[in-house]
Amino acid sequence: MHADEVDIDEALVRRLVEEQFPGWGGLSVERVGSAGTSNAMFRLGADMVVRLPRLPGSVEDVEREHRWLRALADALPVPVPAPLAMGGPGEGYPYPWSVFRWLGGETPVAGRPLAEPELFAKDMAEFITSLRAVDATGAPAAYRSDPLASRDASTREVISGLRGVVDADTVTEVWDAALRATPWQGPGVWVHGDLQPGNVLVHEGRLSAVIDFECMGTADPAVDLIAAWYLMDDEARPVFRAALGPAVDDSMWERGRGWALTIALTELSYYRETNPVMAGTARCVIGRLTGGDRCSPAGGPRGL
To answer: Are 271 and 278 in contact (CB under 8 A)?
Structure first.
């Protein structure tokens, strides 16, 4: 998927574990099927997962997750990854890496209805509300902490490059409306930063865990509203907004639409040829935002 991606396979992971954590050296190692783009994941025995950055840009997220996930976990209504150990470079692999507790569940698939869409929407609202309420003193800035308007030039460039792939005029109208919304005036609050299908787990249609916190930090709370279009259909979306309460005014909702759009457009442009699951999800989100063709399930891997 990336020109500077590190090659990672089961044999490498087995050697790293045996060298650095010999107590786990006899456990099985099995690649986890995932459409994730920043990390490779391997199940270690029955109860753990090894997570290794593919790219140099993801390296600093390892320490961030180890430092902050423990502090956030007790405040959140569903499980999040519990860091168990941090490994270091070795066996030709150049980056730090992590061992987490395994979390069971399934990743939802864009366009495939959940068994309990309205309950899932309320679950997501409870998660976001709980995360926002955590004391943000000393917290790092999120990956998407800049104002939405800072992405204007790059988003318009992507739209231009996708003309003919998406309805560029309608997409531009949605983007312009988001930029007209009143900017966030308050301090940044805790956000997950990337609430899309590959980063949540469901069980029997309900939210069972939230994973992959590499984008976490403080930002405009509208960033986490991308969940409305990445994870919900037209029926569940108003339930989600209502459950979030009056804190989500029209301007915040419109900024959330803008964040969902700019992220989806960028993902579609970058992953059209290399990651069909990510590209299919992005098309679905763009369709939901513009009122165009509704997405259809394209299949997807099991999550952790």
So the answer is: yes
Under DSSP, is residue 105 helix (H, G, I), strand (E, B) or coil? Answer: coil
Q: What does the pLDDT look like over 222-254, one tens digit per residue?
A: 999 999 999 999 999 999 999 999 999 999 999
Per-chain mean pLDDT for the chain: 91
Entry pTM? 0.91
Whole-angstrom distance, CA of residue 36 vs CA of residue 300: 11
Which contacts of 164-171 are long-range, i.e. CB under 8 A and separated by 24 or more positions?
165/268, 165/272, 166/265, 166/268, 166/286, 166/290, 167/290, 167/292, 170/290, 170/291, 170/292, 171/261, 171/265, 171/286, 171/289, 171/290
Beta bridge mates, 200: 210
Residue with tokens 């943000």: 136
Q: Do residues 295 and 287 lie in contact, with contact meaning Cβ atoms separated by under 8 Å?
A: yes
Q: Are strands 189-191 and 97-101 parallel, antiparallel or unpaired?
A: unpaired
Res 296: pLDDT: 55
| Count of CA atoms in the C-beta half-sphere (13 A) of 297 | 12
Q: Which residues of the chain have pLDDT under 70?
A: 1-4, 34-36, 292-304
Whole-number Å distance between alpha carbons of 244 and 64: 27
8 Å CB contact between 132 and 186: no
